[in-house]
């Protein structure tokens, strides 16, 4: 009886050790957190970069990234125009300068300036993320900046739209603050009031 009881105790002890060991293993298991999905911007930047690298491979003769210059970037932007969806009217088109043409015309479809500007921004960031030096970045070349400016100006005239940033309207809280300031400064000396109002106007200029 004593032997059976002792053997039973040993079995229980062994089970406890096994269970304890399992508990320790489970408690030390590393849980690797799932990688967060890429943002829409990062996904688009990766696709743009892959497209540009594929363009360099298909170039005649093939180009390597270190030998890429601003001129090659301009060639790439011209290549993308064939996939554009924005109607850009020629100067001799009767609809030149009309934002909403009343009828179709044979003017070509181009890449919109906003799309090209955003594309260059993403490729400029991707170039440096892949080890490129900022001072050697072909997407930041002066020729590319001038080209984008010319595209913006011409498309603005051609499509009859403005790319200028709109002034933000002051919120209702800002108007309330102005009223409070006017009440607080009422009765003050003219010089102090003039300076204060001038400072307020300057701070509200965007």
Automatic annotation (TrEMBL):
GO BP: any one term: mRNA transcription
GO molecular function list: DNA binding
Keyword Transcription regulation: yes
Keywords carried by this UniProt record: Developmental protein, DNA-binding, Nucleus, Transcription, Transcription regulation
Location of the region described as Disordered in the Swiss-Prot/TrEMBL record: 159-178
Example of a GO cellular component annotation carried by this entry: nucleus
Domain ALOG: 40-167
Xref: Pfam families: ALOG_dom (PF04852)
Subcellular location: Nucleus
Statement: the UniProt record of this protein carries the keyword NAD: no
Family in the record: Belongs to the plant homeotic and developmental regulators ALOG protein family.
Cited PANTHER family: PROTEIN G1-LIKE2, PROTEIN LIGHT-DEPENDENT SHORT HYPOCOTYLS 1
Protein name: ALOG domain-containing protein
Classification lineage: Eukaryota, Viridiplantae, Streptophyta, Embryophyta, Tracheophyta
């Amino acid at each position: 009886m004593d032997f059976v009881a002792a053997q039973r105790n040993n079995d229980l002890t062994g089970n406890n050790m096994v269970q304890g060991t399992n508990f320790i293993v489970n408690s030390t298991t590393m849980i690797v957190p799932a990688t967060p999905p890429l943002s829409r911007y990062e996904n688009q930047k990766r696709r743009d970069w892959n497209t540009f690298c594929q363009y360099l491979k298909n170039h005649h003769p093939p180009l390597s990234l270190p030998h890429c210059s601003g001129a090659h970037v301009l060639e790439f932007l011209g290549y993308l125009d064939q996939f554009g969806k924005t109607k850009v009217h020629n100067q001799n088109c009767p609809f030149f300068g009309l934002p909403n043409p009343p009828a179709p015309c044979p003017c070509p479809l181009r890449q919109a300036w906003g799309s090209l500007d955003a594309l260059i921004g993403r490729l400029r960031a991707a170039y440096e993320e892949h080890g490129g030096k900022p001072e050697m970045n072909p997407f930041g070349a002066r020729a590319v900046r001038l080209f984008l400016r010319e595209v913006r100006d011409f498309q603005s005239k051609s499509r009859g739209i403005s790319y200028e940033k709109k002034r933000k309207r002051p919120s209702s809280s800002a108007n309330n603050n102005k009223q409070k300031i006017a009440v607080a400064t009422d009765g003050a000396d003219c010089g102090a009031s003039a300076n204060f109002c001038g400072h307020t106007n300057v701070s509200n200029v965007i």
